[in-house]
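Deliverable D5.2: sample structural annotation.
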Amino acid sequence: MARAGILLLLFWGCTLQPACNKSAPNAASPPQAAGYDDGSAADTLFYRAQALLANENPDTAVLLFTRAANLYYNQANFDLWEKSVMEVRGIYRKQNNHAAAARFLEAQLRLAGDKLPLSDVRLGKLYAFLGISYSKTGNFTPALEAYKNAMQIFEANHLQNALAAQVYKNTGNIYTRRLDYATALQYLQKALQLNLQLNDFTAAANTHNDLAIVYRYLEDYNSELYHYNRAIATPGIEPRQKAMLLANQADTYLSRKQYQQALHCCRQALNSYLSLPVPPDDELASVYNIMGEIYSDAGSLSLAATHFQKALKFGAAAYGTHHRELARVWINLGNLHARRQVYLQSLTDYQQALQALIPAFLPHDSADLPLLSDFYPEPFIFTALNQIAEVLEQQSMNPIAADNMVPLLTQALLTRELALQQASVMQLAYSVQESKLYLGQFKQDALEKAVKTAVSLYRFTADTAYITKTLSLMEYGKAGALLQAVRETEALQYAPLPDSLLQQKRILELNIYRLSANLHHAPQPDSLFEYSRSLEKLTQTARQQFTAYRNLQSQPVLTDATQLRRSVLKQSDAILSFFCGQTIWVIIGCTQNRLTMHSLAPDTLLLTRLQTFLQQVSQPPANTKATGNYRVYTQAALHLYEALLQPVLMQLPETVNRLCMIPDGLLCNLPFEALLYTMPPDSVPNYRPQHTPYLLSKYAIYYAPSAAMLQQSLKVVPSQNGLQWAGFAPAFTEQPSKSGFDRQNDCTDSELQPLVCNRMEIETIGNITGGITLTGAHAAKKAFLDLAGKCGIIHLAAHACVNNTEPMLSKIYFNDNYLQSYELYAMPAGRVQLAVLSACNTGIGRFAHGEGVLSLSRGFMYSGCPSVITTLWAVNDCATANIMSDFYQQMLTRRLPKPEALQQAKLQYLGNAALPLMEAHPYYWAAAVQAGNFQPLAVQTYNKTLYYLLLLAFFVLLIGVVLYKKYGNNTLRQQYRWK
């Protein structure tokens, strides 16, 4: 049973405590006693409405309260206007008519905007109640907007009361429903902080419960247990509240397959609800749904169906026909019918779920799907679509449906793609990196199944349109958050936003990344929340004021393979894009005029050879067992080439000599140019290319996180006037002081060893480019940050280390301090067109599904740098220095594109006759790879030696002129008899 995204949130808190409302005048009292003017028509209407309400005539009371509110508003008596409005809202709430309450509050807010200032607290209260009404109807997108309007007003007035806490809590719950757990935690922790400050322990118990739910889905069971225990231990907890806690604990037991404990909690909760004077329909629906899930998971399908039907009955009474909690039940029913192989009924159930979520969706038959334009950030839309595709694929495998196999798979593929587009809609709504990474993992199974279906359709039909479709699908699993960030950077450049606003945004982002990365070590949740809220408000302002920024942020980016081939590729170019799933690997070759695809199952031999190859190339070669190691390396390198590349390359034109690799999964750390396209003539360990046929000899190879990122990087037009170069070479002759290097949370415990050749590397390249060279003590962190926004090319020859547990804490070391990865993400790198990270391991890190490798180089790309040269392991700094120096020579003197310049630099290194045979091993040259924009760069160059010679000649000439004027005029005239 699909359980991701299925949440049971504590709706008890959505109904405000009495303390949150101003008391209306007593209905039995005359108007004067209530403090009203006897001659006021508004007061009379208000009093009559109260009397009608006391006599159980709420409908007429609503009409009179509404008329009173309008009169009070026209008299500018805004306190009594607010009180009248809240009376109407209260009647609708008691009638469970939350849709009417929302419409009424919206109308009053539109009216109030003409007279009340936008920061008026009374408007904030109405927005808060509007959000609650929308939440009750399941319309969480407008609810979130209402809550944020309320927050903005409350925060502007420094209001921290029970209503403000409720708004934070409900906002956190909406983010939980969206699977945006990192953001949810921030809001819920803020709500809990306010609850405790106000000594509102009942509300605190509710918030503890909601925090426990988030931690359950994050699989942090210790934190989940802590919050449940705190909620249950709250003194004076009410029966209804305790029942909800029991229901949520049942969900926890279910997730651990402890069915008896789960059922026991459900029965206790059910008895508590049924003992209330008016049993709450919404909570009863939730409990029956959980019981249905328990029975279904335990295999008791009949009992499960009975309880799901009860959940639908009470859900309809509570919500009507449109609500996400109804969708949750319909999805469960669909899953149950699919297990029974009642496929048509299951498809109908899933469509019912979509109808509960999307009122505009009115299907006419089982093949109908909702429109993408009606989507909003709701995980159940993704789940329902994904389950429809699952059923269609199961139907296609039935031998009876053999004639319909292709149509069924085609419909399944269309549905899967729509589900992935829904995931993109969700990702656009996320603002926190952790949530975007979580979503990549969440959608991975659906992505793999979509790719498998597309590959199957290509096999059955031989239609190359399915290759194009597969390539587009693969893009959903590559660098989505990175692309979104780069597009935002672009939007900021073209908006244009004021420099002060950009600077404020960068400072906020830097603090958010810093606190997020260190949160586990030094918790500062309140500071993190305040920075996040400030950034959220700043972004909202930018979207409202700058159309270009709003438009670029609002649409998911879909890769057009045809446009990619036309805009990026020349006759000599090919792109090889990889997908590495659990059960299928796919490689697509793409040229100007040809598409080809190869797929395989990742068997044990392939995975073993891959691991062996990576071990061989990333370690210095040992003189002992040299022959055996050479044989192991060549066998692994050839096997990988034959399994992954040869089936695709042999179908591409012979004119192709430049390859863009878009790797995935385990292949992200693979230096493809060190693969072999044939076996060497013998097993003598000679690593020179004349003996060992590297792919390097045939192709200039570069890399990209995704096809869309490659296209994005090529939007940056290289400057023809030349770029300024800046290089950094810290000394590392002494270990930095503790004040400079805080070793806490460091990603390495080893001392930083002096680098032998990094200074030579920077000074040599500085001579070539005439740029800024900063070595030793001058290679400081502050100097780097100052120059990063000014220079076109940044070159770092330094130490680095990777933190795979907390990628944002990975480090690049300068002479005085280190730069952490999170600082790169907020760095203004808009002018940097090439970053050369000639340090260890700058291109590796933890792999995240849907995003790729979370490396140091990713930080430069994230901040807008279109091209990077990075390393895949701990490099030899002298070999790297030689290759990097020649790379600049090739790029500047021969005007070669970056991949060709790096290829020729490596071949020249290998072609050096004085190079020892073992130093031709790939460990020395294959680590450095180029990613992103491949076009050549112009650098503001001048030769320093020539410059000094010209300067010396100028001074000699100047001295000669002076001497001539002083001494030489008569002497020369006499010597040459000048007239």
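Annotation notes: Confidence is low (pLDDT under 50) at residues 1-39, 737-746, 971-979. The CA atoms of residues 778 and 815 lie 8 Å apart.
The annotation will be released with the project's public dataset once the embargo ends.
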